[in-house]
């Protein structure tokens, strides 16, 4: 886990103690050398410059972003364990229940004022496009609450309902105990920690393959939909051995024919590619048939000419028996 920056604490000396009991504040200049005062001012300026209150924590970036991203990327290839959670109805679920198809994972906390809702709305739009392009039941999505004290099944249900995604097919909002959430976040490379605003966390969406291995990380409160849909498309339509069966062949066709349309910002099944492939195959087949017929005709002609030459005899000389039958001498 990437550690949070620790704030600097210091205590101002009491002016009365510095000035002395008898002199009061009026004698402070007389008793303190100017070098001490300049040193004190310099010390205060350094403290203010390095204090997190005045630096990156106000922007929600108290952690080192490059370290957080490196930590997140190191999770690729890890296998998610069979952890237990509760769905938004309070029913127990296991992560192993989601094996067999790609899984989209993201983390939120229900008291989040802004970013969690923004990411949820973005996912709703992108995942709808993904289901239309890849198939309604081609993948599963889970959103896990990491504020275990507040992200109860009731609050997760309310969070999803307020964003009109509660009844979205294949999207589950899960609550877990502190240890289960910690283990899942660690496996997925998700960084979060308490802050003055609630939590600081990495804006991250994780794609997990059907075997439970972390495949892809996508970052940001806003990102282009191909960053998420392309890895899903490869996992849904990709096959380890090409054309092992008719179903594999169909998947390969859909893999190459499902394209992103930048103008419409949507994925669509491009039938023109399939039509072009079909026409190309027909042209190649027609050429092969024509070549085969020409070869067959040429072979027949050679055989016919060979028979005629054998009937004339060698070197064009008429055989003796033909001369005798014709009365020639």
Overview of this structure, please?
The strands form four sheets. A five-stranded mixed beta sheet has the order 5-4-3-8-9, sandwiched between helices. Strand 10 and strand 11 form a beta hairpin. Helix 5 packs parallel to helix 8 (226-237) and helix 8 packs antiparallel against helix 9 (246-257). The chain is elongated, with a radius of gyration of 38 Å. It contains eleven helices and eleven strands. With 329 residues, the protein is of the alpha+beta class.
CATH homologous superfamily annotation of the largest domain: Glutaredoxin
Number of distinct helices: 11
What order do the SSEs take from the amino end to the carboxyl end, as H and E? HHHHEEEHEHEHEEEEHHEEHH
Alpha-carbon distance between the termini? 115 Å
Regions with little confidence, pLDDT below 50 for 5+ residues: 1-32, 45-61
What share of the residues does DSSP label as strand, in percent?
Answer: 5-15%
Described by strand count, sense and barrel closure, the largest sheet is:
5 strands, mixed
- Would you tell me the structural class of the helices and strands? alpha+beta
CATH fold call of the largest domain: Glutaredoxin
- Across the major sheet, the strand order is 5-4-3-8-9
Q: What shape does the CA trace take?
A: elongated
Give the fraction of residues assigned to helices: 40-55%
CATH architecture tag of the largest domain: 3-Layer(aba) Sandwich
> Could you tell me the radius of gyration in angstroms?
38 Å
